[in-house]
Structure formats: structure tokens, C-alpha cells
Write a structure and sequence with these properties.
With 366 residues, the chain is of the alpha/beta class. It has helices spanning 48-55, 82-88, 111-122, 128-141, 158-169, 188-203, 217-223, 241-246, 251-258, 298-301, 327-343, 352-365, and strands at 3-15, 21-33, 37-41, 63-72, 75-76, 94-97, 176-180, 209-213, 226-231, 234-240, 313-314, 320-321. The protein has one domain: P-loop containing nucleotide triphosphate hydrolases (Rossmann fold, 3-Layer(aba) Sandwich), CATH 3.40.50.300. The model is unreliable at 262-272 (pLDDT under 50). The strands form two sheets. The chain has an eight-stranded mixed β-sheet, sandwiched between helices. Strands 2-1-4-5 form a four-stranded antiparallel β-sheet. A hairpin with a 5-residue loop joins strand 11 and strand 12. The structure holds adenosine-5'-triphosphate (ATP) and magnesium ion (MG).
Amino acid sequence: MAVMLEVKNLTTYYKTRMNERICSVDNVSFSLEDGKSLGIAGESGCGKSTLAMSVMGYYFPPLYYEGGNIVIDGKDITALNPDTIRQTVLGTEIAYIPQAAMNALNPTRKIMRFIEDVLRAHNSRLSGKEMRDLAEERFNILNLPSKVLDQYAVELSGGMKQRTVIAISTILSPKVLIADEPSSALDVSSQKIVIKLLHDLMERGFVRSMLFITHELPLLFNVTDDIMVMYAGEIVERGSAREMVFDPLMPYSKGLMNSIIVPEEGTRGHVLQAIPGVPPNLKIRPEGCRFSERCQYLDICGMKDRKGALENQAAGPGRLYRCRLDEERLRKLYREQEENARKFPLISHTFVDEKIAAVETMGEEI
Ligand SMILES: Nc1ncnc2c1ncn2[C@@H]1O[C@H](COP(=O)(O)OP(=O)(O)OP(=O)(O)O)[C@@H](O)[C@H]1O
Ligand SMILES: [Mg+2]
């Protein structure tokens, strides 16, 4: 299958006012195929949004490019200057819906004006009527009322505002859409409508492939084909959504997947098992395994004294994980842990069968 987006060894950093470098995306490589969606999971501050911004190839202070390549549909956009990126890449090759975008809409402009801006940046010859027709047609296909075009952002509900932002961002039918927490601020029913809209965009070919960022793992499981886990600026695991949720390998991913919410009375909304500790400071590039300070298997893997970078290991087609322990060893450790947790039910633990129930309930809701 054709690769739509290929990111190779991408490294970007923030420069602080104190002239410190915070390397939030460090040597990241991955690819995304035509027709597929890829989810990005990870704790707050691990670099998800920075990766999303970096992948557009459009940098402005305090974010800077250090190295690596971004190839969209066979075209390397890395060396293009910002003006060329704005004119020939943003919107058509790649579109980005920033975290909290719906709250950033200028309240004094009608929705149609935003659409005109996007269309004009790409093709200045379009007449007002042509733009209007295009917008109405797209809104109709996507089941969005076209009267929204004449409204101001403040007149729209949260859910409608978010759907509108998505429709504006994708009006030029981008090859890659990056949606950063598109449904996190919404109530459950608006969330479902937003997810359905993203599905529709993919199905109709208005968006060819999608990077989807969210804290909500059941959502990732039900919405994306593959999931990547980020930790401290690195990709630490990738696999199919099913593999990642039910058979995570890297201990950090395992911890993250254990925090999947169990849909039981009273527990809904609770994170059952948080991972103790905090991620490392990215001002000093951490050596070796970046998760080591928080990992409960540190004594077994012997990573304590190891310096230098730790590479991802392959574990079957499309599956990567960053850990010194081999797959079988990790699975055995997790099995033992699960058996112990069953013996001592006071230990907070999400069992695999509960997890299946959790993600499947969510799936039915969508
Ligand atoms: N403008 C900035 N200047 C300096 N450092 C920044 C800036 N923005 C983000 N960072 C740092 O970069 C790292 C990654 O941040 P990023 O926003 O990409 O994380 P995230 O995974 O998207 O988090 P969240 O889940 O909270 O959205 C964090 O350590 C953060 O402190
Ligand atoms: Mg973010």
C-alpha cells in the first residue's frame, strides 16, 4: 500500500528565553499509509503536540528544526521555505487541527470568512460565489447545516464549533490530517458526532490518512488502525490498535494501557492504575532508556548503567518497541503480575477481560 506520510529521524526543539533547548521530538521515525489512521498516545508533556506541529514542516519560534525528513506522498517537504510550505503544503498536503482550536476562532468573523481565507491562500482566482458553493456543498455532504456559514463562532455550541473547525481545516481535501485532541473538551454525545465526522471525511476521501492524538485510549482503539506510544520525545512502541491495547510490550505502554477506564458504576472516569513518578527533564537529553527511572523491571534489564541511545526493536510486521527485554520475557512478567493481582484483589489492576469490556462498550457507543 502507498505510503502517504513518512517521517525519518525527525528532531525538533524549543529554545527557551534562558537559551535552553528542550528536545521534545527526538529522532522520531514512522510512516502512515494511504487510507489509514494512526493514533498517538502518551502522558501530558511527552511531545505529542510538538510532533504534530513538527510534521507540518512549518516552524516558528520557539520551535526549531534540528534534523530529519518529512515526505508526503513521495515529496520531501523538509527543505522548503516557510512561504512555499504555506502556499503548497498546508491545507492540501497536510492539515492540522491544533489542540483547543475551536476556542481560537476569532469571534468577530463569520465562519464563511475563515473558509475564504483557506481557499484563497491556495487559489486566489476563486470568486466569492465559487467559494460559497464549494463550502455549501462540503457542509451538505458532511451533514453540517449551511446556515453555520453565516454565523459567528460564539453562536455555535461546542460540538458544532469543533465540527466546523474540522470542516474548515479539511476544505482543501488534505492527504494527511492531524487532529490533536479533537474531541477531548466535548461531552460524550458531541464526541461521538465529531468522531463520526472524522470517519466520514476518511470514507469519502476528503482526507486520505489521519494522525489522531488523544488521551483517551478506548477512543484510539475504536478510531485508529495503528497506535504509537510516545514517551519523553521518543516513539517507544507501535503496533495495531488491538496489539497495543491487549498486548503492549514496552513497560511504559503497559502502564498506560492499564489505565484504561473500566465502565463500571462508580469507577467510570477514574484512572485505575497511574504510573508512579514523572518523565525525565528534556533539557538534558536523557541517555539510555528514558523510562528507566520509573520502570519496575530495571533490575532485570540491567539498563541502569547503560549509556547511549536505546533503539526500537522489531517484533513482527509493523510492530516496534523500545526495551532491552525480549518479547517473551516481557509477556511472562506481565502474566505473573496479573496472576499476583488476582491473588491479592486489593491491588488496583485492570484485568485484560475488563479492558476488553471497556473498549468494546465504547465501540458500541460510537
Ligand atoms: N512553547 C514552549 N516552550 C518551551 N517548551 C515547550 C513549549 N511547548 C511545549 N514545551 C515542552 O515540550 C514538551 C512536549 O510538550 P507537548 O505540548 O508537545 O506535549 P503533549 O504530549 O502534547 O502534552 P498534552 O497531552 O498535555 O497536550 C513538554 O515538556 C513541554 O514542557
Ligand atoms: Mg498536546
